[in-house]
Design goal:
The protein has about 425 residues and is of the alpha+beta class. Helices cover about 55% and strands about 15% of the residues. Strand 9 (about 210) and strand 10 (about 215) form a beta hairpin.
Length: about 425
């Protein structure tokens, strides 16, 4: 038994040696043959790294909202996939009275805030101005708690500021960098749509969401002052904080019942509002990531098939070129299984080499995306294992026919070949 195992091991090592010798003897031809496999594996590794990094980033960013917080909105959460926006536009707007009703009628709710926002705004001082990209948010005083924000300098506005419609603002760090470089912004004046506002607080820097949208390029003003600037005809977003994480589900049901009653929704009709939790937004992103994953593997499979055809072609050429060598080996006692194993090993090793190059390039692209997008891209181990497994499987599948053709050669006829 040991002798047979040793014999098989030596045969396998000899096949590996012969395969490596073939690759080193024709390096350019080998690399061109592997191009399809390299492209497919590189695509899968890079896309899986991007999706995994986005997933971790989404979980981290959403966790800042708190485990016991959710949002009620007129519009669907996430926004991924095909959405009939016209249908949602026909819904009733959410109002400040809705927020007050939720606060008063839901025992499991601890705090409620209401907010609205307008993007693409230009903010100015006497000497400087921002680009027209700042998001101006109007909110109630409770917004700082329900949104997980932290004021690093100064204060957030209070309920009296909201009731009186005072022209005070809490600004993000991008606005500070643009308008108040090298100075304390608290107490400084700025203008929003020509109206003067006093900075009373600065938000702690939060970075970007998904590495694409800065969460610091915004400022928050009292909802009443916001209404004077932008009107009160749009729907509000109502953020709800349960009294404890354990009561989150109960708070959601209480809010749903109150909102359905206030909006006269029929008993069997679906909600005409949306409740978004961290879990629902994560599920929405996961649905999108699954589509991207399937598409990536489709590209990989197509590239692997192209690479497999290349391997089939080059192995047939190799069998033709080495017909005399095969004849000599068979004349010296090499059996069909040995010849079959030699060429099958060569095909699998060639595909595996292409997979390894693709994995290396995929890691390189993942590192480049990490630098460009500003968040960590993580290559999941299963993606590496699956890519290498698919590569070697393609090599075996497309290498069997040339290997079997080599094994069937008649040694006498093979030795006569030029």
């Amino acid at each position: 038994m040991n002798r047979r195992f040793q014999s098989n091991l030596l045969a396998a090592l000899d096949n590996l040696r012969l395969a490596m010798g073939t690759f080193l003897g024709n390096p350019l031809r080998t690399l061109l043959t592997l191009l399809g496999i390299v492209i497919g594996v590189t695509t899968v590794i890079a896309m899986m790294a991007l999706i995994e990094g986005l997933r971790l980033k989404v979980n981290k960013d959403l966790s800042s909202l708190g485990a016991n917080t959710f949002e009620v909105s007129k519009w669907p959460s996430g926004g991924f996939g095909r959405i009939n926006w016209r249908k949602y536009a026909m819904r009733k707007n959410l109002t400040l009275d809705d927020a007050h009703a939720v606060q008063e009628l839901c025992p499991s709710v601890g705090m409620v805030s209401a907010s609205d926002s307008e993007g693409g705004q230009r903010i100015a001082t006497a000497s400087l101005e921002t680009r027209p990209s700042v998001r101006v948010r109007g909110a109630t005083a409770e917004y700082v708690d329900t949104s997980g924000l932290t004021v690093s300098t100064g204060r957030f506005f209070n309920p009296l500021d909201v009731v009186d419609g005072r022209s005070v603002a809490v600004v993000g760090m991008d606005v500070v960098d643009a308008l108040f470089p090298g100075m304390d912004p608290v107490g400084q004046q700025m203008r929003i749509k020509g109206r003067p506002f006093t900075v009373v607080g600065v938000l702690q820097r939060r970075g970007s969401f998904l590495g694409m949208m800065s969460m610091d390029n915004e400022l928050i003003i009292p909802l009443s002052a916001y209404g004077m600037l932008y009107g009160t005809n749009s729907s509000l977003d109502v953020a709800v904080q349960a009294t404890s994480p354990e009561l989150l589900s109960k708070a959601e049901e209480e809010v749903r019942l109150v909102m359905r009653r206030r909006r006269d929704v029929a008993p069997l009709a679906p909600d005409d509002f949306d409740i978004a939790t961290n879990e629902s937004m994560t599920e929405s992103f996961n649905s999108l990531s699954q589509v991207i994953t399937v598409a990536s593997f489709g590209v990989c499979l197509l590239s692997l098939v192209v690479g497999g055809i290349g391997i089939l072609n080059i192995m047939l050429v190799s069998v033709t070129e080495r017909t005399r060598e095969i004849g000599i080996r068979k004349a010296l006692g090499a059996r069909k299984a040995r010849i079959l194993g030699q060429f099958a090993t060569e095909a699998v090793l060639m595909a595996l080499l292409g997979g390894a190059i693709g994995v290396a390039l995929g890691y390189g692209l993942a590192f480049l995306m990490r630098w460009m997008l500003g968040f960590n891209t993580v290559v999941p181990p299963w993606a590496v294992a699956l890519s290498l497994g698919m590569s070697s499987g393609v090599g075996l599948l497309f290498g069997i026919y040339p290997a079997a053709r080599a094994a069937r050669l008649d040694p006498v006829e093979a030795m006569r070949a030029d």
